[in-house]
Amino acid sequence: MGSRPADEVLDAAAAGVHYSALRLDELNINGSMTGEEQPTTSGVENGHQEPFVIGVAGGASSGKSTVCKMIIDQLRDQRVVVVTQESFYYGLSDEELVHVHDYNFDHPDAFDTELLLSCMENLKYGKAVDIPNYNFKTYKSVASARKVNPSDVIILEGILVFHDSRVRDLMNMKIFVDTDADVRLTRRIRRDTIEKGRDIKTVLDQYSKFVKPAFEDFILPTKKYADIIIPRGGDNDVAIDLIVQHIRTKLGQHDLCKVHPNLYVIQTTYQIRGMHTIIRDAATTTHDFIFYADRLIRLVVEHGLGHLPFKEKQVITPTGSVYTGVEFSKRLCGISVIRSGESMENALRACCKGIKIGKILIHREGDNGKQLIYHNLPKDIANRHVLLLDPILGTGNSAVQAISLLLKKGVQETNIIFLNLISAPQGVHVVSKRFPRVKIVTSEIEFGLNDDFRVIPGMGEFGDRYFGTDDYQSSTPFFCDDKNRVSLPPFTLLHPTPFHIHTAAAAAAASSVSASSGAMNSVIAKLASLLTDEYTHLKGVKSGIRWLRDELSTMNAVLQRLGDMDDDQIDVQTKEWRNKVRELSYDIEDCIDRFLQKHSGGDANANFVRKMKKLWENHQIGDEIKQLKARVLEEKERHDRYKITDQLIDLVSNMCAWILEYQPCTSKPKTLWALISLGNR
């Protein structure tokens, strides 16, 4: 498999400007994208960035226009457009013009709300609109409409902009300007006499007859919808400064962050974009994929830890000075969603020394169904903050299952931080709607899901690419004698694997194996790593490790075949054996993880005390391996007593018959079958 040098990819990725915005209205949720339709993750030409819409409401002459002007003045580096609700007054008929002083301009029915809604929707979705130009002397819209183009920030200002829920739902921020009634009356008299050509008596009569009752009946009740209430209007400089600062923060966020305040996307840099380019490339080698995935995971973990509660702490520096800093919560644990979530454990351990890590295994049922089948959590998890680990958030179904389990175990929703590398909008919506107080931390937002519920553009099956199982092929041939009869060793299972296996099929197979055999695949891989030259100090226990690896590989073959069978085809004794072996796999993995944690970052020049400590730890590990070996022998004997493999004889016979009937002893390609021997009784 060819690959480009990592430095070359990083330089190429840094050549353009990153654009991470997402058009939610154009998202193809249920449809797949063809090659020509597939978008990339950079380039402004790929979509329109949704503007930030601000609604400013309040009584007449409360200072709404002044607040809008102050916001515009401070957002000089952004394109800002103001749309006033007054532009959408209905024109008065000839009969209404005769009694114009009896017309209530402060009633919701005085505005063309449908036209206002249409204009705001078009602006929000990147289309230019024509805003009516209302003349308050003729009480009609003049012919020359005002052309308004899409902008970074859209401010909708008016007395009743919060009244219609459809208009209100378009807003990202709602501000209510609260000003004293006497001040508003004074301003109204001055404005209406100068700008609208009315006399004072008419203004006062209209105020007492229409304005004041309308404020109490229609305007003031909408105050409850406001996100921010500004007392004294434009005189409140502090409030305006805080609002502008918040707007600047939101403008730098992904569109989904504006919708879901519990979503946090780490700030994009050229380095982050370059690393995403590498791990998303199908030609990237496993070694490079692991290296750059680990770097990204570390950044996500560090960002997630920043959301933990903390308290102030003072320490004495080596110079004798006092430094005032913070101390984060120590009641913390990580929970990985098997199998991909295990790839994030090393980064978490590197950031949090000695952290407890639990596991949740969720088995896929059908195309989109999920079913929880295993969990191993800390006993005191209800009293801890939880970092939930899963590198890809797709449909959100697995995340919902995992979070629901944590809540049932007593974990507070606010104490859960969900960490992942990439997130599909659908998954973010599902998790945020169900658990709005769970924080989601990710490094990039995807475009969506295709018909197969795969994240696009995505990075493939993360677990397969990380653990090196994406190119899985069987290397064990079947044996035929001169009469084309298949020779089966005692207790042999047929594991069907097409010789020219596709990556997607391998990924699906690996997923089902992980669900059926618990942590066995992970355990076997970790045991193999302990046999490398990196752990030369384990000479005394390597034979036990090698024995465990070989025996567990055999048991794993049985678990795989049991996973392909329906529960009603498996007797009670076999189910009991299967469950015990699964539990055994998790105990072995815990033992390995404790060892790796103790022996990571070793110093070749450590002092004698440290060496003695490690010798003692090695002795403990050796004792644990002996105990685990005894348990494996016990389960192997139980396997022989129950004659578990006998249940699969019919399946084997059928497969053999199929092989013999399929073009025996010809030169045409055959399906390759792996024969996995369980050893002699």
From TrEMBL:
<dbReference type="InterPro" id="IPR038005">
    <property type="entry name" value="RX-like_CC"/>
</dbReference>
<keyword id="KW-0067">ATP-binding</keyword>
<keyword id="KW-0433">Leucine-rich repeat</keyword>
<dbReference type="InterPro" id="IPR006083">
    <property type="entry name" value="PRK/URK"/>
</dbReference>
<dbReference type="GO" id="GO:0004849">
    <property type="term" value="F:uridine kinase activity"/>
</dbReference>
<dbReference type="Pfam" id="PF00485">
    <property type="entry name" value="PRK"/>
</dbReference>
<keyword id="KW-0511">Multifunctional enzyme</keyword>
<comment type="similarity">
    <text>Belongs to the uridine kinase family.</text>
</comment>
<keyword id="KW-0175">Coiled coil</keyword>
<dbReference type="GO" id="GO:0005525">
    <property type="term" value="F:GTP binding"/>
</dbReference>
<protein>
    <recommendedName>
        <fullName>Uridine kinase</fullName>
        <ecNumber>2.7.1.48</ecNumber>
    </recommendedName>
</protein>
<keyword id="KW-0342">GTP-binding</keyword>
<dbReference type="Pfam" id="PF18052">
    <property type="entry name" value="Rx_N"/>
</dbReference>
<dbReference type="GO" id="GO:0044206">
    <property type="term" value="P:UMP salvage"/>
</dbReference>
<dbReference type="InterPro" id="IPR027417">
    <property type="entry name" value="P-loop_NTPase"/>
</dbReference>
<dbReference type="GO" id="GO:0043771">
    <property type="term" value="F:cytidine kinase activity"/>
</dbReference>
<dbReference type="InterPro" id="IPR041118">
    <property type="entry name" value="Rx_N"/>
</dbReference>
<dbReference type="GO" id="GO:0044211">
    <property type="term" value="P:CTP salvage"/>
</dbReference>
<comment type="pathway">
    <text>Pyrimidine metabolism; UMP biosynthesis via salvage pathway; UMP from uridine: step 1/1.</text>
</comment>
<comment type="similarity">
    <text>In the C-terminal section; belongs to the UPRTase family.</text>
</comment>
<feature type="domain" description="Disease resistance N-terminal">
    <location>
        <begin position="519"/>
        <end position="603"/>
    </location>
</feature>
<dbReference type="GO" id="GO:0006952">
    <property type="term" value="P:defense response"/>
</dbReference>
<dbReference type="InterPro" id="IPR029057">
    <property type="entry name" value="PRTase-like"/>
</dbReference>
<dbReference type="InterPro" id="IPR000836">
    <property type="entry name" value="PRTase_dom"/>
</dbReference>
<keyword id="KW-0808">Transferase</keyword>
<dbReference type="Pfam" id="PF14681">
    <property type="entry name" value="UPRTase"/>
</dbReference>
<feature type="domain" description="Phosphoribosyltransferase">
    <location>
        <begin position="268"/>
        <end position="469"/>
    </location>
</feature>
<feature type="domain" description="Phosphoribulokinase/uridine kinase">
    <location>
        <begin position="53"/>
        <end position="239"/>
    </location>
</feature>
<keyword id="KW-0611">Plant defense</keyword>
<feature type="coiled-coil region">
    <location>
        <begin position="618"/>
        <end position="645"/>
    </location>
</feature>
<keyword id="KW-0547">Nucleotide-binding</keyword>
<keyword id="KW-0677">Repeat</keyword>
<comment type="pathway">
    <text>Pyrimidine metabolism; CTP biosynthesis via salvage pathway; CTP from cytidine: step 1/3.</text>
</comment>
<dbReference type="GO" id="GO:0005524">
    <property type="term" value="F:ATP binding"/>
</dbReference>
<dbReference type="InterPro" id="IPR000764">
    <property type="entry name" value="Uridine_kinase-like"/>
</dbReference>
<keyword id="KW-0418">Kinase</keyword>
